Amino acid sequence: METLTERLTAVRERIAAAARRVNRDPATIRLVGVTKAHPVEVIRAALDAGLSDIGENRVQEAEAKMAALAAERHRLTWHLIGHLQTNKAKKAAMLFDMVHSVDSLRLAQILDRYAAEVRREAQGRLPILLQVNVSGEATKSGFALRGWETHPDIYERFCADVEQILALPHLDVRGLMTIAPWRPDPEQARPVFRAVRRLRDDLAQRFPAAAWRDLSMGMTDDFEVAIEEGATIVRVGRAIFGER
Ligand SMILES: *Cc1c(COP(=O)(O)O)cnc(C)c1O
User: Fold this and answer.
1) Can you give the CATH number for the domain in which 186 is found?
2) pLDDT tens, 30-85?
C-alpha cells in the first residue's frame, strides 16, 4: 500500500509534468485535496504531508471537520466545491476561504449579503468562482452555457448576470469552475476545458475590472488534461486519498 505522502508526491509530479508539457510554471497551479467522505484524521495527515488546501462539497460535513481542526485554522485553506443551497449560504460565507460553486445570480446575491454580515473585516471580500456547465450535462450544476459560442443570447444572458455579480461589494470574483462529464478517456474532457478557458478569456476582455485569473477544473481522472488547457486550480480526491 502506498502512503498518503507517496500518493501526494506522485500527484504533484504529474501536475508538474503536465504543466511543463505546455510551458507553464508548475508553481502557478494550486492543488486542492478533496476530502469529502473521509474522516478528519485524513485531513490532519494531508496537512502533515504538506497539503493545506482542502476541498469539501457539503457545508455540514465541512463544518464538523473545521471544528475538529480549529487549532489548525491558520494553516488550512478551505474550499467549498459542491453545490450550495441558499439555506446554507450564511454558514458557507462564514466558514470557507473560497466558494467554487456559485451557480446563479440569486446565490451570489445571498452570499454577498451574508458575507457582509458574518465575515470579519480582516477577511476581506469572499473569493468566489462562477461554476459553469458548458457540456449541457443535466446532472451537473452551474450556469447553463452549452452552445454559448454559437448562441449569442445564451452568452448575453450570462453576461447580464456576471455584470450584476461583479457589482456585489462583498464578493471577489476570481474566475470560473467546471466539472467535465465523466468519460472513460480523459482526452474527451479536453474540448470542455478548452471551451471554459475561451469563455474565461472572453469574460476577461468584456469585464477587465475583474481578475478572471483562476480556472478550477480537473479531478482525479482528468487533471492533467485540465492543466494542459489552462487550469490554475485542480481538485483531486481519489488519486491522493483513495476510493471513497
Ligand atoms: C468529489 C469532487 C472532486 C474530486 O473528485 P476525484 O475524482 O475524487 O478526484 C472534485 N470536484 C468536485 C466538485 C467534487 O465533488
Assistant:
1) 3.20.20.10
2) 999 999 999 999 999 999 999 999 999 999 999 999 999 999 999 999 999 999 99
Instruction: Out of 15, 137, 219, give the residue to mutate to test ligand 1, the one with the largest number of ligand atoms within 8 Å of its CB.
Output: 219
Q: Which atom of ligand 1 is nearest to the CA of 239?
A: 9
79 and 43 Cβ atoms separated by less than 8 Å? no
Q: Which three cell numbers stand for residue 57?
A: 462539497
Give the whole-angstrom CA distance, residue 58 versus residue 92. Answer: 9
Q: C-alpha grid cell for residue 28?
A: 502557478
Count of structural domains within the chain: 1
Q: Has residue 121 got a pLDDT over 80? A: no
Could you give the maximum distance between any two Cα atoms of the chain, in Å?
A: 52
CA distances for 238 relative to 4, 7, 45, 125, angstroms: 11, 10, 15, 31
**Average pLDDT over the chain, rounded to an integer:** 96
